[in-house]
Fold this sequence. Notes:
heterodimer, A: alpha/beta, Rossmann fold, 5-stranded parallel beta sheet, 65% helix, kinase activity (chain B), kinase (chain B), HATPase_C_sf (chain B)
Amino acid sequence: MAQQDFSKKKALLIEDMAEARIMQRKMLTDFGFTSIDIAMKAETAIELLKNQTFDVILSDYNLGNGKDGQQLLEEVRHSKLIPNTATYLMVTAETSIEMVMGAIEYQPDGYITKPFSQAVLQRRLSKLLETKERLYNVNIALDKGDFESAIAAAKIVMKKYPSLIGKCERIIGESLLELKEYKKALSLFNKTLKSRKMPWALFGKGKSYFLMGELEKAEQSFRQLMLDNRFFVSAYDWLAKIQVVEGKLEEAQSTLIEAIGRSPKNILRQMELGKISLDLNDSMTAEMSYRRAVFLAKYSCYNTADVYLNHLESLARISDNGPLLPRQKDNFDSTLKKIHESFFDNPDNKAKAYSCEIDVYLADKDTLTAKQIFEAWLSEVKSGSSTAPTKQQSASYAAAFGGIQ
Amino acid sequence: MKKLDISTILASAIHESKNQVGTLLYQLQSLKDVIGSKDANQKKIILIEESLKKLNDEWVEYLYLYRLASDGYDLHVDTFLLDEFLDDQVFALHPSALAKNLQLEYSCDASLTGIFDERLMTAVVSTAVYNAFRFAKSKITISAKKENEFLIIAIEDDGQGFKNTEEDGDEFLEGNTGLGLYFAELSANAHVINERTGFIKKESSLALGGASLTVFLPQPSNIDLLYNV
């Protein structure tokens, strides 16, 4: 293994405990890093990652009350805040490692278990950086979204470094899926499974079958993964997707509820459960998931209007069966406030928020307030800053306001 | 209040204590940095450090043991290059060997790969090596090979060797409870491929004359692979 020159690499250290942070920073300095940025929590890290690029990210799994290291990784990889050329090393404890290893889709480049010595950290980082160097052309192509070049580059790397066959096969398989070459992807994942029982290959097999429309076979793969390890939570997400396509919404809902029991902090999963529950007219479950999503969205890459508007919608649907409880009304107001603060410049968002608000006041028999809101809405429509109510909405409001001048 | 299971309480207590060992190790590291490598106390500090590391590794072992015994461990197998895996083990344990003036080496075919749970086998190898530290005169070796669709990892030393009785489990951890051996056995047993289960063997070391602990881990055969597709 070649000695790495760390002096030109930019590092980001994410650790909430002061003692460990000081120690790890010292270790990094001692073996040559000259540029080390520090974040004490995931939210700060996201801000830094939005504005700078780093070569090495050393993140603790446990980051206090906010997001954990795995969620951070999933978010920044999903939203491409960190390039594939960057190395993400997760620092774990014995209790958290299963969550990290169970995340088949977004795995860190490596993990290291606490406590570790400087020598062990240096060795681990050197190895990881060496691997990144060998995969450089592959990762550059992936970052550009040029999957054909990524496949070609991975084939070259595989020949030169047999120990990277697994990594390269995985990249090729996933790139084939991106290129919609499902049959080729499937045969590659099957080929891998013939010689090695890798969870990612079984996962890829399931995805290939799903995308080819062979739902039964896809379900088999995902169920096998769930059986192999209860921490493979993304297998549950995909099983739920299959159940939605098959129209088995109740089953999809219970699959997701089980997944959330194992891994509650994934915002996309909460949103999906909310959506399915609304479709099932289960507004209580929908409200619970969207409320959690609203909580998780703060400082997140998924901090979009949808999260908040869906929460309002779920509360409005609860109010279809009677006035909201004081606690629910508080939740409604607090989410509405966030929409006013951040997302009120969009005409469609305004229309959606107004309509939910009117529903909630009407359910509370507060026709006066409901009417005022409707008038405010109409004047915004006039000035062009809000989308108009639908004919159906106007008609039902007119009927509800009927008695009032 | 629901009555809690005592083993669960102990497991979380071990976890708490393990975290404290981690903190102690960090503090010791900063002490080491302050006093510099020429200081007369450096040797003592290294001894304390190695003991703390061993304590930490033992607690990791106990935590896994608890999980294995209470069915709460999800095996996470992957394919590893043995050359890299054993190199990592020797690297981690080398300072302890050095502190005891013992030689620690590994050998295996450079292209040998195996399928196993890395964390469990790391704990098994370190448990066996720590044990060998107590008996070895000068040398400990770790080796790996594949035979009859089993991956075989052997930890051998040049000490007195296992006594030739059936109840010598206790001897494995001198005066201890044989927990280490039990742990190695449960870890090997947890590796199952189509009804072929992993196991361990205590033998005499042919190469070094002392004890040899051999761990057998089932690997997929061509027939198993047909089932998988």
